[in-house]
Each structure stands twice: as C-alpha cells, then as structure tokens.
Amino acid sequence: MKILVASAWPYVQSVPHLGNLIGSILSADVFARYARLKYGKENVIFVSGSDEHGTPIEIEAIKRGVDPKSLTDQAHEYDKELFIKTWNISFDNYTRTESEVHKKFVREFLLGVAKYITVEEEELPYCEKDKLFLPDRFVKGICPYCGFEDARGDQCDRCGKLLTPSILINPKCAICGSTPVMKRTKHWFFDLRPFSEPIKKWITSSEDMPENVKGTALSWLNEGLKPRSLTRDNAWGIPAPFPGAEGKTIYVWFEALLGYLSATLEYFTKRGEPEKWKEFWNKDTSRSYYFIGKDNIPFHAVILPAMLMASSTDYTLPTVIAATEYLLYEGQKFSKSRKIGIWIDEAPFIMDVDYWRFILIRMRPEEKDMNFTWTEVIRIVNTELNDDIGNLVNRVITMIMRYFDRRVPSPTNFKEIDEHLLERMRETVKKVGEMFEKGKLKGGTELILALARETNGYINQKAPWDKVKVEKEDAANTLYVTFLVVRAIALMLYPIIPNKAEAIYQQLGLDIKAETWDSLMKPLDPGHIIGKPEPVFKKLPTDFDKKIQEIIEKIRSDVERNRPTLLK
C-alpha cells in the first residue's frame, strides 16, 4: 500500500505563524514520519509547496515596480529553508506553483476535463480607481448569511458559507476601500453539479473521515453545488489553456489543489521514474491523507474530489482530511499588524524546536478552537516533557547502569504486574497508530503520556532500588520491562520530537533509524549494553510567562529585518 501525505500549500506572501504551522505542515510531518515507520519509507511520499500566484502578490509587485516572480523566488526559498532546516519538516518534495512541471500538469489536466467546463459571461466587481477586476478575496463586505462585517468575496470566515462578491452587502475594494462597479467579462467555469451525488456517497460511506469534514462537505452539498469559476483576470498565474482565454489565468485554488498531483509527479520525474507517481494516486494501490485548516475543508472535501472524479484516470480520493480548528494566541487571533502571536522564524530563538513541535501537537485544535497560552507552555514542558517522560528515561537508564553495570538484565518469571505493563505498552502502540491514522495526533499523545505516567507509578510500586538488595530477579524484571516501555515511548514520540527521541535512543544504546513501528513488539537481545544517561529535557523557569514578552521584543526586530522583501 502506498501512502500519500499532503499538507495545504502555504501562501508565500507571509511567514507562517504557529497556528498556520500546526494546521497543516507540522501535523502532516508527524503523520508522514509515523507512516514511514509503519509502512516503510519507500511506500510513503510527503508533498507540499509554496502557493505563489494570485492578485495579492501581483499588486505588491506593481506597487514595487518589480516582477512578481522576483518576490516569490526569495520568499519561497526563505520558507523552504525554515521548514526543512529549522523545523525539521521531512518533505519528500516541497515545490512551488511556479514549477514548470506544475504549470504544465495543471494546463493538461484542465484540458482533459473539458467536458465539465463551460464559458459564461458574468458581471464582476471592477475597481475604477485601481483599474482592475477584483478577484473574490479582494472584495470585502458584510456576509448576507450571518452579518459578519469583514467577509471576503469567496468565503465567510465566521459561518464558512461560500460567497461571491455580488451577494456581499456593502462591498468594498480590499485594496483602496472604494466601492467597485460591476462590469461584464468572460470566464471559464468548472461544473460541480454532476458530482454532487458521487461526492455525497463517498463522504457518507467513509469510516475514517473526521466529522467536521463530513459536516462541512454535506452542508455544501445540501445547499446545491454550482459551476465554479476556473479563471481570473489576473496577469500573475498559470495562463488558462482554453481556446479564446488569452489574458486569463487559472484561479489559484484550482491549481493549488492539483499541486498535490504535480508535486508527486515532479518528485519521481527528478528521480528518473516518471511513471511511478501513479502508484501513489491509483485508487487500488494507495491511501491519501491531507492536513489542512478548517477554512480549507470545502476545497479539499468537495472541489478536489470533483476534479479527480472528472478525470478519466481512477485517482484515489482522500482517505482522511484532517482539518484543525483555529489556534488562538492568548485568546486572540494571530495578527501580524497588531503583533499578536509568534511566527515560525521567531519561535526557534525562544526555545528548542523539538519543544515547540511537542507543544503545538499537545495544543493541536482537533475538535474545537484551542487557546495558546504561555502558562500552558510551561506546564507542558515542565510536567509532561520533563517530569513524565524525561524523568522516566533518566530513572531507567541510571538504574540499569548502577545496578546491572550498563547491561539490560534478562527477565525470568514475570509477575502479573509486569505482564500487565507489557500488555499496556503493546495496546498503546496499537492505539496510537490507530489515532494517528485518523488524524488524531493530539489524541495519540494523550495515550503516550498515560503510558509514561503508569510506568513511573509501576517503578514506584516495584521499588527496584530496594528489591535489588533482596530479590534481584524482580529488580531485573522491572528494569527489563521499563527499558522496553521507554524504547516504545521514544519511538512513538519520534514523529513528533525526532531529535529528542533519537537522543533517548542513543542512551538506550539503540539506533532509532533501524526501527519500524512493529519492531516494538520484538524482545531485546540478551546482554544489551546501554549508553550514558543524560537529562533529555530541562524545565522552563516558572516565571517564563512573565519574561516572554521581553524576549519576543528583543528578537523580533532582528528577525523582521532579515526577512525577504515580500515577507517584511
């Protein structure tokens, strides 16, 4: 079985903040690392890339008097280095929408589904001051459904309804604030209507799809699907391939969705295996997992499946679309202009990236909006990482060194308490895998932490420091069992905190890269020699939450100064 892992493509106009990171790329990385352990590296591909077309960048380039690509070239490389080198994101291919492979694939794909594409004239908002047609996101107004006063022309951020600029109340140009006029223009539309029933059948029959995704998709379907505009009157984008569509470009959402396919194709083309990509998209040989924010659910649960169904190729439909709710920052929305939040090029100057990865997965808003607070950060690092996990590792390694001369003792006759913990370990490994495969990454960490706490309690109850003097066999059993549990915990944490998990494995005297998810069920070789015990984690100061704003202010100006032009 081939496993495709995809994260939503970050829009290259801004540096992602922590909420963006956990909503897509970090979550996808955790799952991809798990999938490689479970299914084998050769059977998993993890793709994403920079979404760099559209009006915002075109307008920014016009203001600066430069070519849009000169702006996105710098921003793409900056983000790519942040993801891969700083945050240790294990992409197989992090590409971009300016990739020649992508542009060619999009044009050919759309020509291949031409029977579902129609040409229509429509009235669209035109800004007479800026002299351009305004794409959806560049018209703002009041949502006609819920009354939200800052709704965009494509979707309302409050109620999630799909919108068009023409139905907004009191529409304004998002660039200059003037009231647009309506002018006629010709566009190409992808007809979603033929796919309403097939999508409903697919989404309702899925046993793995999260309920928030099902609910949003069914809401769209019940309201009735309509043709959706494929083209825009933009200069910056992929030129529309249709006869008579000169001067039009492809709407960024349609092309970004097709980027999952083109990124897979590009990866194998560069490897000299241009046909192998199809194995990861064939419905009979693959499963696919998408990690996105909840505002992107309609595009991934309705429009992407419709396009895949429209093709003559039997593409695999999404197995799981793991859509997070919103992460708030101390009760507020992240805002660059108001300096609310932490951005991913700032965070590594505050603490170790593996700490951040664990913190964000623990705060992952899987079922409802979550609030990032520094008080919770301190609790997670000091209690969960340091006490529950780090203390367990140190206790086990230190006692093996002290009482058994660095050799993991061989077990003899297990007692019921020993067998119980080993069974709990096996159950946890199985259940964590099941949680991960449903996109419940935070839920998986709850199980890992529960096992760590139970193991600490087991050590306290067994007291090997006393038993080693009077019943050495029992002490040997205790340390053998806890060694296996620590190994299991470290490997289950490897997708989340790869560097720290590898450090734990070094202390165990094992090579984490030689492991698989299922190898945790195998016993240990007799006489195994451990490494040197060293603290893996350290606590944050208890007043860290009071000092953090001063720390942020010290680093922020330097970080902003070093950003590329487009991201400043």
Features:
four-stranded antiparallel sheet, Rossmann fold, five-stranded parallel sheet, elongated, 13% strand, alpha/beta, 568 residues
Give a structural overview.
- This protein has helices at 18-23, 25-39, 55-64, 68-86, 100-112, 196-205, 211-223, 252-270, 297-310, 353-362, 374-404, 416-437, 441-462, 464-470, 472-493, 498-508, 544-561; strands at residues 2-7, 44-50, 93-96, 117-127, 132-133, 139-142, 151-152, 169-173, 181-190, 228-229, 231-232, 249-250, 286-293, 320-324, 327-329, 370-372.
- Strand 15, helix 10 (353-362) and strand 16 form a beta-alpha-beta unit.
- The protein contains 17 helices and 16 strands.
- The two termini are 43 Å apart.
- It is elongated, with a radius of gyration of 26 Å.
- It has a five-stranded parallel β-sheet with strand order 3-2-1-13-14, with helices on both faces.
- The relative contact order is 0.12.
- Among the domains are: 2-110 and 252-329, Rossmann fold (3-Layer(aba) Sandwich), CATH 3.40.50.620; 373-521, Isoleucyl-tRNA Synthetase, Domain 1 (Orthogonal Bundle).
- The chain is of the alpha/beta class.
- Helix 11 crosses helix 13 (441-462).
- Belongs to the class-I aminoacyl-tRNA synthetase family. MetG type 1 subfamily.
- It catalyses: tRNA(Met) + L-methionine + ATP = L-methionyl-tRNA(Met) + AMP + diphosphate.
- ATP binds at residue 336.
- Its main location: cytoplasm.
- Its cofactor is Zn(2+).
